[in-house]
Amino acid sequence: MNTQTALVTGASEGLGKSFAFELAGRGFHLVLVALPKTGLPELARYIRINFNVKVDIFETDLTASNSCTSIFKELANRSIYPGILINNAGLGNWSWFADKSISFYKTQIDLNITSTVLLSRLFLEQPCRPEKLYLLNVGSLGGQFIVPKKQVYGATKSFISYFTRSLQLELAGSGVQVSLLSPGGIHTKPELLVMNHSLKGISAASILEPDQVAREAIDGLFKGKREIVPGVLNRLMVFLDHILPAMVKTLIIRKKLRVILKQSNP
Ligand SMILES: NC(=O)c1ccc[n+]([C@@H]2O[C@H](COP(=O)([O-])OP(=O)(O)OC[C@H]3O[C@@H](n4cnc5c(N)ncnc54)[C@H](OP(=O)(O)O)[C@@H]3O)[C@@H](O)[C@H]2O)c1
After folding, report:
1. To the nearest 10°, the Cα dihedral for 211, 235, 7, 168?
2. Can you give the pLDDT of all 266 residues of the chain as single tens digits?
3. Which of 38, 67, 180, 201 is most buried, judged by most C-beta within 10 A?
4. Model-level pTM?
5. 189 in contact with ligand 1, CB cutoff 6 A
6. Beta strand pairing status for 84-87 and 29-34?
7. With a 6 A CB cut-off, is 61 part of the ligand 1 pocket?
8. Ligand 1: does its nearest atom lie under 6 Å from the Cβ of 227?
9. Is the CB of 35 under 6 A from ligand 1?
10. Is 39 helix (H, G, I), strand (E, B) or coil?
11. Where are the beta strands (DSSP E) in 46-175?
């Protein structure tokens, strides 16, 4: 059995839960973080029984001040020093800028950006850290393309991309593997299932199941990949994005925006 411990944020559902199963299946002990009352104790019990690994949980709001520091303080008290950090917790949305409240955007930025930066820093400065560390930051293809109705979300994921690439440069040769996960659409929760079902063509075909994304991500992390884009179609879209002239991309986005506006005001 593997004796290393992996810390996964946003582990109660969606991609985070798939990460928890994927890592437990590979024999890693787990530290799972999610908001209170989201079934984390039950999930931990299920994983302990079925995978025979240790599971510690933190039911905490990662946007609350000091929550990230408290997690690592408590882990040190329990002599747990994770060798893997999966910064997965994130808050998405698909709405016009004016339609979400100030407090929503504050929470989105605090969760997607601030908690990722703070947890990464705390993870790297652990006093008794394992010799080799693995850090996986969950970004999004939405951080690479301009997608209508994802203005703040996409910007937070662009931040994650920049931050992760900078860390890769800074930590090269230090025994820390830093990878960026850039998924396209994932079938994680009912709202997304409804939205994904309205997609057509290549967009519909590119949607993946969370278990596949988690498996490709962990494979890529351990293989030392700098960026992991799960799914062949998503990789094709990234390739096209690199070769298409900016003017063509702007025309495609404008066309998409017109379709969305027509659907909103038929
Ligand atoms: N789904 C997609 O299509 C897609 C595509 C590209 C990238 N991503 C990224 O993948 C990651 C996971 O997405 P997902 O679709 O699996 O999301 P999800 O189903 O909404 O899960 C998000 C997780 O984060 C937790 N969380 C939310 N707010 C929190 C807070 N303040 N403190 C602590 N935990 C909190 C949630 O816990 P609760 O259960 O307690 O709310 C949940 O476990 C995100 O970073 C997302 O941006 C998703």
Report:
1. 170
2. 457 999 999 999 999 999 999 999 999 999 999 999 999 999 999 999 999 999 999 999 999 999 999 999 999 999 999 999 999 999 999 999 999 999 999 999 999 999 999 999 999 999 898 899 999 999 999 888 888 899 999 999 999 999 999 999 999 999 999 999 999 999 998 766 666 666 667 777 889 999 999 999 999 999 999 999 999 999 998 998 889 888 887 888 788 778 777 776 66
3. 180
4. 0.93
5. yes
6. unpaired
7. yes
8. no
9. yes
10. coil
11. 55-59, 84-87, 133-138
- Cα(266) to centroid(ligand 1), Å: 32
CA of 136 to the centre of ligand 1 (A): 15
**Whole-angstrom distance, CA of residue 27 vs CA of residue 36:** 26
Hey, what domains does the chain have and what are their CATH numbers? 5-234 (3.40.50.720)
If 0-12 CB within 10 Å is exposed, 13-18 middle and 19+ buried, where does residue 13 land? Answer: middle
Joined together, the tokens standing for residue 39 give: 């079934």
The region that residue 230 occupies, defined by phi over 0 for left and psi between -120 and 50 for alpha, beta otherwise, is beta
Q: Closest ligand 1 atom to the C-alpha of 16?
A: 16
